[in-house]
Amino acid sequence: PDVPDKPATCGLALDNSAEWGRDDVLGKLMAKFEIRLVQAREGFESVRKDWLKHAEGLGETVSVNTPHGALEGVFEDMDSTGGLILRLPTGERRIISSGDVNLIGMA
């Protein structure tokens, strides 16, 4: 989508192919899904490590709107259940299992 000040892209747009048919898209999606499905069957830890390799904001200050209120801190890690580990300004570490995360300065 074209939204001012909000960069966005489509993985398919990164390929220089001029036209994508439904079968092309579904074929690529199914191949990638199969890789992740096999990985997930081996356990969450490898999924977690791959996700963290690409995690935007890791080691940076983020704000998180949770069902219990807003928090701000450094996105330190992801725990073994997929929870975001947030270091608060007080030094306390919180595990966030649900909420909207915004990068500071990019929200």
What labels describe this entry?
single chain, 107 residues, alpha+beta, 5-stranded antiparallel β-sheet, 2 helices, 28% helix
Secondary structure topology:
Blueprint: H1 22-41, H2 44-53, E1 61-66, E2 69-78, E3 84-87, E4 93-96, E5 100-103
Antiparallel strand pairs: 1-2, 1-5, 2-3, 3-4
Number of helices: 2
Contiguous runs where pLDDT drops below 50 for at least 5 residues: none
Gap from first CA to last CA: 17 Å
Computed CA radius of gyration, to the nearest angstrom: 17 Å
Q: Using DSSP, what is the number of strands? A: 5
What is the subunit arrangement here?
single chain
Write the element-wise H/E pattern from the N-terminal end onward.
HHEEEEE
Give the neighbour order of strands across the main sheet.
Answer: 4-3-2-1-5
Largest sheet: 5 strands, antiparallel
**Shape type:** extended
Approximately how much beta-strand content do the residues carry?
Answer: 25-35%
Mean pLDDT: 86
The percent range for helix content is: 25-40%
Q: Return the structural class.
A: alpha+beta
Can you describe what's shown?
By secondary structure, the chain is α+β, with helices and mostly antiparallel strands. Helices cover 28% and strands 26% of the residues. It is built from 2 helices and 5 strands. It has a 5-stranded antiparallel sheet with strand order 4-3-2-1-5, with no helix packed on it. The chain is extended, with a radius of gyration of 17 Å.
